[in-house]
Amino acid sequence: MTLKAASTAVTRIPTRFIASRRRSVKSPRGIMCHQLVWAPRQQLVWGSHTTRRSPLPAEQIPFTKDALSALPSAPAGKRAYYRDTRYPQLYIQITDRGRKSFQVYSWGAGRPQRVTLGKFDPENPGALTIEQARKEVAGVLKKIQAGRRPNAEKRATRHAETVRDMASEYLKRHAKEKKRSWREDERQIEKDINPVLGSRKAREITRRDITKLLERISDRGADVQARRTYRLLSRMFRYAVGKGLSDGKNFVFPSPRGDHPICKDALSRAVSRNLKAFGVEDFTPHDLRRTASTIMAEAGVSDFDIRRVQGHALPGTGKVYNQYSFDSEKRRALSRWSRRLDEILSGKKRGKVVGLPNR
Fold first, then answer.
1. What is the SS3 assignment for 159?
2. Do the Cβ atoms of 90 and 100 come closer than 8 Å?
3. Which DSSP symbol is given to 193?
4. 3-state helix, strand, coil in the chain (%, to 5)
5. Rounded distance, CA 120 to CA 91, Å?
6. Which of 28, 270, 283, 358 has its CA at a distance of 20 to 30 angstroms from the CA of residue 190?
7. Which residues lie closer than 8 Å to 79 by C-beta, 6 or more apart?
8. Beta carbons of 74 and 96 less than 8 angstroms apart
9. pTM above 0.90, yes or no
């Protein structure tokens, strides 16, 4: 076959086919020939010979509760896959025992990545719903496109140190070497910290978790102990951040749409989306400053401290000569506001407020 004839033959191959590999064969006359092996695009597997990043072979169906519940088990020893028509990177994997789980399948970091999101089981309240799975797709794809490997990160999280491990490391490597009162630290850890937070991953602890722990201690009438526990936790987490056991990222407001804090206009957008549900005319996020200011005053916070929380400058020459940050005063004021807000949302009256001391 001439080169021109070969080129013509190639152009006549339907576009739904693609060359998957090249092989060399010897003709009956002893002449070496090169052949291209063609395969349907959707049947190609991932690999160095693939010229297109094909999706995982799967039937595409609309993901609904009834549709996924009706899907049969995979054949013995195999697994079946179905792809969402709305989110093509979202799959449902079904085992031969009928277990179903959501997965994200995409290409990233130089290789295909299949990330399991969670199980699908309408009878289990703790299982992942279709809506929840779809919301997680964007976050997973963003990580993959950034060159990260979500599966490796999940494995690292599973093996990450718990608060109990962190506390043990703190006592062994820091407190016992540098503090004469390390036994008091150990007592506080065993009595108040480990029973509540010990099994949690250190990287997952948020400021809200700390606040709940302090309120629990305060509710038994141990306000002094609550303050001591707060100072101990502050030292432990500073030590953990320095040693890489915790990154401290969970102490900011996390975004529900990815691994990052909320943006500066997130509150304005939330108010706009829910304005009709509020039933209040001409409501803006700025009105929340008045609400917080009023409630803090009702809780006994001085007008001077409220102005510091609001970021107002000191009057007169104070803004020049007084460089004190008023952090402890602002922390106490916001703690009272937070406590009152929890009471409003839960409908339950709480006990005495615990002021959070300076770090």
1. coil
2. no
3. I
4. 45, 15, 40
5. 11
6. 358
7. 93, 94, 95, 96
8. yes
9. no
